[in-house]
Design goal:
The chain has about 180 residues and is an alpha/beta fold. It has nine helices and eight strands. The chain has two domains: about 140 residues, Rossmann fold (3-Layer(aba) Sandwich); about 40 residues, no CATH class. The strands form two sheets. Strands 1, 2, 3, 4, 5 and 6 form a six-stranded mixed sheet that branches. A two-stranded antiparallel sheet has the order 7-8. The N and C termini lie close together (about 10 Å). The structure holds flavin mononucleotide (FMN).
Length: about 180
Amino acid sequence: MNTAVIYKTKYGFTETYARWIAEDLGANLLIADKVKPADLQNHSTLIFGGGLYAGGVSGIATLTKNFESIKNKALYLFTVGAADVTDQKNIDSIRGSLGRVLTPPMMQAIKIYHFRGGMKYSKMSLTHRAMMGLMIKMVRKKPENELRAEDKLMLETYGQDIDFTDRQMIVPLLEDIKARMK
Ligand SMILES: Cc1cc2nc3c(=O)[nH]c(=O)nc-3n(C[C@H](O)[C@H](O)[C@H](O)COP(=O)(O)O)c2cc1C
């Protein structure tokens, strides 16, 4: 099987999913920032993964910049965020943000999956800490009846490390890829 998992991670959550996927598919594991166009050409199935930061997907430029030369391959993208991806509102919000980065032909060609990562306040960069500080201030200002499940979770867990990674989450992606290869 000629598959590569190309990922970018800041706190290790995307890497956990990338390693699970690569292990289950016997795929090569590549770091998005180090990937060269030739590495992409050497594989027929490309699975890109990145963490969500204020709606943007970390490392997605590796996919968008090279899209013209890889558009005929089997393309997958998975996002890893703290938000609960069993909540359709969160999925809609991620899709909305992706729609600003991916063109309609990209959206059509790439199969997209969403996994849940976590928060690592203990290792957080100063910039991310400041961003989270601004976000919690906004959430704390919201009236109780406007708080969404995500807001409540943030209020309850602010400052604590949480990990929602779950190997089961990758099953639909694996099945999709295996079915396409049959
Ligand atoms: C500043 C900041 C912004 C974030 N924005 C989002 C977001 O918009 N949506 C989301 O689901 N998670 C968001 N997260 C949570 C990360 O996506 C989460 O920690 C993810 O597991 C990171 O994956 P990584 O460690 O592979 O980079 C944010 C985290 C930080 C620190």
